């Protein structure tokens, strides 16, 4: 599973609040021109791709889908500000969506407007992780001034307008048809639908409360509630993203000792013709054992060349920073020299390589396989 989390925002203020938590961000350009920044978040150093979608559900849906296809992430988080709809939700609090309502759906009839609700629930697995982060409260430890905002887990309403009235027809519509919504904003429905179309991919909307959607938005903005609220949302999102990566994501079988059955083994039978050879296949959890079989040094050299190509692709995809990529290439060069000199030191060089690429699952697995092959030569 990928260790990368996509984080999307609608406004530059929100974007900067997340970017301030990133280390070594590098620009990643999508072929259609969308710019993402790829870097690392948190002391654990998990990878994040940050993108700006602009305001509105439609652009949010398109660019969320684009990010999902481009990065195949472990999860997608949408982070920003929103207006509170309930008195118990205070300025600066954080709302995590249990579900998202697209509240503008309806049909106009002779006797009035009839609601046609659409909604998307946050996946059970992601919701469980979010609730765990809420319970621990440790996410707020580094916030300015030592503040500890409350976090609410409940529905969010997403429409196509800025909602800034407690008495307008739109406000009444939301109260009548979406009475349990805690907050209102303009992008979550698009992101939630994109996540729904991508199957089991966890999508979580995290909003900091910057106004009360009551006609006083300009006053609250003048009191700098937007930057304060988005810092709170970004802090919670960073903690949640780390937990989602550590948790392993939906669909991952529990390993032995983690409350589930031990992983079972599957035998794959393969036929290879000509010069083709088949290595380890399938999805593996826990220890992997390779049968020892002595392969010619020419095959090991070809494997090292393949690793170099994978390194280049990982670097261009933003999965490896330039320094790590250069260091990994140097270890491949060292391994090639060891091979040419009879194999002494080959395993050590490959182990150093694996340590450098451990964050990229495909590369780490390939390096592990090469170590097993190298041991068979000794």
UniProtKB/TrEMBL annotation:
GO BP term, pick one: nucleoside metabolic process
Annotated GO MF terms: adenosylhomocysteine nucleosidase activity; methylthioadenosine nucleosidase activity
InterPro entries reported in the protein's UniProt record: Nucleoside_phosphorylase_d, Nucleoside_phosphorylase_sf
One cellular-component annotation, GO: cytosol
Biased composition (Polar residues): 263-278
Domain Nucleoside phosphorylase: 5-240
Region (Disordered): 250-278
PANTHER family xrefs: 5'-METHYLTHIOADENOSINE/S-ADENOSYLHOMOCYSTEINE NUCLEOSIDASE (PTHR46832), 5'-METHYLTHIOADENOSINE_S-ADENOSYLHOMOCYSTEINE NUCLEOSIDASE (PTHR46832:SF1)
Name of the protein in its database record: Purine phosphorylase
Organism from which the protein derives: Couchioplanes caeruleus subsp. caeruleus
């Amino acid at each position: 599973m990928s260790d990368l989390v996509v984080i999307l925002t609608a406004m530059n203020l929100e974007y900067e609040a997340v970017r301030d938590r990133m280390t070594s961000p590098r620009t990643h350009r999508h072929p259609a021109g969308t710019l993402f920044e790829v870097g690392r978040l948190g002391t654990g150093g998990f990878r994040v791709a940050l993108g700006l979608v602009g305001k509105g559900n439609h652009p949010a849906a398109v660019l969320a889908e684009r990010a999902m296809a481009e990065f195949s992430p472990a999860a997608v988080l949408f982070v920003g500000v929103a207006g509170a709809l309930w008195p118990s939700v205070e300025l600066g609090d954080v709302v995590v969506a249990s579900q998202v309502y697209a509240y503008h759906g309806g049909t106009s009839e002779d006797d009035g407007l009839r609601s046609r609700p659409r909604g998307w629930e946050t996946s059970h697995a992601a919701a469980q992780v979010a609730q765990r982060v809420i319970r621990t409260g440790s996410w707020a430890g580094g916030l300015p001034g030592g503040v500890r905002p409350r976090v609410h887990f409940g529905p969010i309403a997403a429409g196509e307008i800025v909602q800034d009235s407690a008495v307008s027809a739109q406000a009444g519509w939301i109260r009548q048809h979406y009475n349990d919504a805690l907050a209102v904003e303009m992008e979550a429905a698009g992101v939630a639908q994109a996540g729904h179309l991508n199957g089991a991919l966890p999508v979580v909307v995290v909003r900091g409360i910057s106004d009360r959607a009551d006609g006083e938005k300009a006053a609250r903005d003048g009191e700098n509630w937007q930057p304060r609220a988005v810092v709170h949302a970004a802090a919670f999102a960073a903690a949640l993203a780390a937990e989602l990566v550590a948790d392993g994501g939906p669909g991952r079988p529990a390993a032995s000792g983690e409350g589930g059955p031990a992983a079972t083994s599957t035998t794959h039978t393969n036929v290879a013709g000509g010069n083709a050879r088949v290595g380890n296949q399938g999805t593996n959890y826990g220890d992997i054992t390779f049968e020892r079989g002595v392969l010619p040094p020419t095959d090991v050299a070809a494997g090292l060349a393949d690793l170099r190509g994978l390194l280049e692709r990982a670097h261009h995809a933003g999965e490896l920073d330039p320094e790590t990529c250069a260091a990994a290439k140097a270890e491949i060069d060292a391994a090639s020299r060891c091979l040419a000199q009879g194999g002494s030191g080959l395993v050590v060089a490959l182990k150093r390589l694996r340590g450098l690429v451990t964050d990229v699952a495909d590369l780490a697995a390939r390096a592990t396989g090469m170590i097993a092959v190298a041991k068979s030569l000794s």
